[in-house]
Each structure stands twice: as C-alpha cells, then as structure tokens.
Write a structure and sequence with these properties.
Elements lengths: L1 H20 L9 H17 L3 H14 L4 H16 L3 H14 L6 H14 L17 H17 L5 H28 L3 H14 L6 H14 L3 H14 L4 H12 L3
Length: 261
Amino acid sequence: MHRLVAIVLLALATALAVGCGGRQAPDPTNYTEAARYEWDRAEGIFDRRDYEYARSLYNDLMLQYPYSQYAVLAELRIADTYYRERSWARAIETYRRFVRFHPSHPSVPEAQYRIASAHVEQMPNDWFAMPPSHERDLREAQNAYAALRGFIGVYGDTEWADDAREELVVVRDRLAAHELYVAEFYMRDDNPVAAGQRARYLIDNYPEATDVPNALFIYARAMLQLGNTDDAVVALRRLSVEFGDTARGRDARRYLDEFGL
C-alpha cells in the first residue's frame, strides 16, 4: 500500500512539473543541457511578448552559462526584445554590440539588417506633424540610407535583401525630396546659384530618385538665369529624352523651342 501511494505521488509530481514548466528540469551537472533548458524557458516568455521578463531571463542565462552557444543567442535575443518594443535606439546599440563581439556569427546579417530597419523606423512621418518630413531633421534618414546601402553591398544575397531594397527606395526618395524642396526655395528666393547646386546634388547623389526630372528642370532654369546655356541645354535634352512622356519632359521641349536651344 505504501509503495502504491509513493508511485502515485511521484506520478503527480512529474505531471505537475511538466505542466508548469513545459519540460522537466535538466541534470544540473550537464552544462549544455542546463543552458538549453534556460534558453527554452526564456524563449517561451519571448513568444508570449513579455519582453521585459524575457530580457531578465536571457541576462541570467548569459551570467550562468557564459560559455554555451545559448549565451551568444541570448545577446541577440535581447536586441530583438528592444526591437519588438520599438525601442529603436536601444535596439541599434544592442545589435551593434552583438556584431562587434561576434563578427563571424551566422546571425550577423540579420543584426545588420535590423540596425538599418531601426533607423528607417526612426525617420519622421509626414502625417504626424507639420512641416513635412523632408523639411525637418534628416539625420535618421541619412543614417538609414547609409546603413541600407552598406547592408545591400555586403549581404545583397540574403533573405533580408529584398526588404532592404524596398526600404532604400523610400529613404532615397525622402532625401531627394528634401533637396528638391531646398532647391525650389532658393529659386523662389531668386538665388539661382544655390538652387542649381542643390538640384545638381540631387541629380548626382540620387540618380534613380522619383524627383530627378523636377531637379533637372530646376537646374536648367537656374543655369539659364546665370547665362550658362550649355549646361541648361544638357539638362533639358536629358529631360526630353529620358523623361519625354512626363510633364517635365514636355516642359523641357517647350523651353528648348522657346529659347531657340
């Protein structure tokens, strides 16, 4: 009878342990098994989106099992928790630290992409405040542009490359829109030298941007005001050939005809 009671109690204790923790506690003398147990535990909390608690578990894992493979993965996961919480600056800092200390780890491409994506997320949004975002501080857009170009240049064949290219188009057009806005401002302010410089900068640095036709037209007008007919003709002819079916292409042909160019 006593033996039967002991067996039942043991079965209940085992079921309770499995039900509460999802897994039985590992052999504490097996370093790798114990580290894996703590990793799985932290991952369960991460999947439940309790990111603050998950961070504490990942940190504990790193302290208790610093020489296991799971300690390195925990470093990356901590960065992921900040990313999921939209704490972009903390995420960037933590991903960079991971890359710096583990440059050959297979997860480095993912970390580099998250860094670039976090910069994109920090860019100002047009629909939240005025003036438009292209008139405001563009440091994060510039950081995002540099990070995305760098990522594509090194990791252009990875699974994150297509997303990075799509984001690069958005960032590039945001930066080009800023240059166009400034060029238009200088034209309205009767400053063709500055207008031409900003338009030229857009054309040279963002050659595939949506606003290139507008920049070419402003540049041509600025050059005409300055008496630089040769450069004006080059810009107008490029507009009429490469963007002939657009409004700016038609404007270019009209200018060429009206000014006898």
